[in-house]
Design brief:
Layout (H helix, E strand, L loop, with lengths): L1 H6 L2 H17 L4 H19 L4 H6 L9 H4 L29 H13 L4 H20 L26 H15 L4 H16 L3 H5 L6 E2 L4 E5 L5 E5 L2 H18 L19 H13 L9 H14 L4 H8 L4 H4 L1 H17 L5
Antiparallel strand pairs: 1-2, 2-3
Helix pairs in contact: 2-3, 3-7, 6-7, 8-9, 9-11, 9-13, 13-16
Length: about 350
């Protein structure tokens, strides 16, 4: 990706630098998200300017001969520059000479489809392109926003794997049994699994917790979510007891003089990373008979599903999980319906 970016004209790189700062500082996106957004835009600009590897250019079409206007619900060509303008060097505050128009956007997606990109990848990259062109238009780098008419195939939404409630109980019981040995790591892992399932927080939110973010009296955790949005999530008695045991008997054994105020510490006294949390959860869930393989996000799915099965309303679950829109939370209702159908098919005398 860096090689493609370096091959772009300096004025284009300058615009991308400003866009990167916008994503990181103004929108407050994580470093991982910024890299993903920017990487897609770099590929788009490299394709439009013809600086991608020749091997890629030979195996993919340049324009919209795979994604036709009918595929995207638009007609004809609109935008800033005709193809004859594509070799012109753009001014620092003008992307017009790049030829970043609707035809170029369609051609970029068409090239990827021809190269075997899936619907999910195409949908993500189309979203990244639309986000960039909207920003560039607002900043005056584009005279019009060609992304407004860009439509990509909708991604397939698969139902997430979740634990049954009895499997979740088995996971917590097995984890608690290990913690009774009072090993600091076992105490930490048990508290970590309890908190993930009790709150449904993201792994990044879990790793970002500091000791002061936990209120054991009111059983509340203050987490920093996507877009630097803070929210408070409740947790139950078992999670509170596990956290208290970890803070009293486990964390002091791992803490060093230079340890951060992080709630979760690794073996060397530093803040626990998300990679370690994924490994911990995979091992813990793997010990439960019949449980699907999953990581921290699987416990988040499970928590949401079990809340809905227990009668929680969708809006409350949305607030708990920190979803920006209710549509994202509604995915879990499909999980619940599928499970109810399976139970009906298995137990109802007239299901056959």
């Amino acid at each position: 990706m860096g090689r493609v970016r370096d091959a772009l004209p300096e004025p284009v790189r300058a615009v991308l630098d400003q866009y990167e700062r916008h994503l990181a500082l103004e929108r407050g996106l994580s470093a991982h998200t910024v890299r993903a957004y920017l990487g897609d835009v770099v590929l788009l600009m490299g394709f439009t300017l013809g600086v991608l590897d020749s091997a890629f250019a030979q195996t993919t079409p340049r324009m919209g001969d795979v994604l036709s206007p009918e595929d995207e619900g638009g007609e004809g060509k609109t935008g800033l520059a005709e193809s004859s303008d594509r070799g012109r060097q753009p001014a620092p505050a003008d992307l017009g000479g790049v030829g970043l128009d609707l035809t170029a956007l369609r051609g970029w997606l068409a090239a990827q489809r021809a190269a075997g990109a899936g619907r999910t990848t195409l949908a993500r990259r189309a979203a990244a392109a639309r986000t960039f062109t909207a920003w560039a238009h607002r900043r005056g780098y584009l005279a019009a926003d060609p992304g407004l008419r860009l439509v990509a195939p909708k991604r397939h939404r698969t139902l997430p794997a979740v634990l049954r409630q009895d499997q979740a109980e088995g996971l917590m019981a097995a984890s608690a049994a290990g913690a009774r040995e009072l090993d600091p790591v076992a105490l930490r892992d048990h508290a970590l699994v309890e908190v993930l399932y009790a709150t449904g927080v993201r792994v990044s939110e879990l790793c970002g917790l500091d000791v002061d973010d936990i209120d054991l009296g009111d059983r509340l955790a203050r987490v920093l979510g996507k877009g630097a949005k803070e929210r408070v999530v409740p947790f139950g008695g078992p999670a509170a007891a596990a956290i208290e045991a970890w803070l009293r008997q486990g964390r002091p054994s791992l803490a060093r003089a230079d340890s951060p105020p992080a709630l979760w510490l690794g073996a060397r006294g530093g803040r626990l990373h998300s990679t370690a949390v994924r490994r911990i959860v995979h091992l813990a869930v793997g010990a439960v008979d019949g449980a699907p393989d999953m990581g921290p996000h699987g416990l988040r799915h499970s928590a949401a599903t079990h809340l809905l099965e227990g009668g929680a309303d969708l809006r409350s679950v949305q607030e708990l999980l920190g979803h920006a829109t209710l549509a994202t939370t509604q995915l879990y209702t499909h999980v619940t319906v599928e499970r109810l159908k399976a139970i009906h098919d298995r137990t109802h005398p007239r299901s056959g």
